[in-house]
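ok so for the tutorial part 2 we go from a plain amino acid sequence to predicted structure tokens. step 1 is just haveing the sequence, like this:
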Amino acid sequence: MNMQTITNYSLILIGAIIMLISVVRVRSLLKFISTISEYHQKQVRLFFVLHRELMVLFFIGYISVLVAFAFHYSFVSETFVSFIFFSGSIFVYIGTIVQSRLLAGVQNTLKGLLPICITCKKIRVMDRDSEGSEKWQRIDTFISEKTDVDFSHGYCPTCFDKVIKKIREE
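step 2 — the prediction. this is what the tokens look like for a chain of 170 residues:
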């Protein structure tokens, strides 16, 4: 085997390993879907699944090309290389869609109008259990569900002074 052949085999094998690692790692990304708006969650989940399936196809393509090169099946290797390049364009396109949907979801999570009760400070959210209905929820509960933030309750200095004053009056 000459150096060019060894280099080609090595590059294809390294590509296959990287693709396999990517297939495994994409599963851990699914946990972040809960941080985006419900409107985008179903779409992003679908695109993640499509993206992952394309990665599996890439992995199979890499291995097939490696085998075809090793046994000198030029027709098969050329066909698979063409397939891999075509799939690559779809892969990049779906990746771009996933990224844009995730960014739109994050932007909507961090920005926007949040209806809040003027008296009790609960916020109006869409109920997940029934389509189109609304419910009122404490703001700390809402934020805890949408992010990795837990709340610790206490008093600000002004409220603390009011509570102490009220206790002393009683």
